[in-house]
Amino acid sequence: MSASTHSLAVARRIVVKVGSALLVGEAGADARWLAALAADVSRLRERGQQVLVVSSGAVALGRRRLGLTGRTLTVPEKQASAAAGQSLLMRAWEEAFEPHGLACAQVLMTRDDTEVRRRWLNARATVDTLLSLGVIPIVNENDTVVTEEIRVGDNDRLSARVAQMAGADALVLLSDVDGFYTADPRQDPNAQHVPLIERITPQIEAMAGGANAQAGVGTGGMATKLEAARIASAAGCATIITMGHRPSPLWAVEHGEKATVVAPATTPAAAYKAWIAGSLSPAGVLTVDAGAAAAVGRGKSLLAAGVRKVEGRFDKGDAVLIRDETGRDIARGLTRYEAADARRICGLKSEAIEGVLGYTSGPLVHADDLALAPHAVGA
Questions:
Q1: Phi-psi region of 210 (alpha: psi -120 to 50; beta: other; left: phi over 0)
Q2: Range 25-49 average pLDDT
């Protein structure tokens, strides 16, 4: 079994990136190609895998609707085209998935949604809920409002950030080449296909920035695909670069067609915990009783009932230290409440929170958002 076949077969959660050149044909959205990809996704869903799609195409479809083809667009014209094209893009995806009984939902993101912790948590919660409901999220950069200085940059990078946010195991970048080569295969007949990249080295980067520079669709070439793969790898996600210009590209990968896999450097869960433990400065402290400390040490969520004291000024999504009553740090985590609300619900049982705040976001710190101090594991 090839590395790409294995990576796709074992993934629990998969992000598939589709560029404009694949999705948009001369007469609009390519319904035949979309139908084949939808059948691919449906097949993965039937065997228990979850799939998100990062899709370009709104600007390309909208500029036709507005009669803006044949020239370079200004930023306002790009934004107007995106606004006009988003409904066309979603209609195309809905029609593709409908025969399989699958619903899809539009998720528009900006760079802040991938970098600001509060917005990141909100976006992740939305995506997780959609997937739990059996819905296919169709993610795109919000080109209607975004400007050049606040763009993610291209949908290769966006798809990697989405994979990181969603805790995906595999990211599939559908390209116009069937993987990474030692040189551009369209210009050098001696170029060799590289089926597996264990680590992105300076030598690999040089190949991407040189001979492979023009390989890739849309605004990104092979260099941006490798940059996306680097982001995904650090998040514990394997990246598969493969040919998109063929029917059922995911089926093709699973049946041995050429592709390149960039291996993950860790697991999604471990990468996320490491990010919480080492990359975020705590904005507050939650002191907990012995029962809560023991529960957190066993990997359980921190409930408001076990919190005895709240210190600091923090917002939802900020990192906080969790301490026991002896003053020992036992964990770091991302809080689901701002400091003022955390103080109001300190010591309350979960069922009482909504009556006090008028809403509930679940535990103060969810188990998924906790990184234990080494001495606290299994406490």
A1: alpha
A2: 93
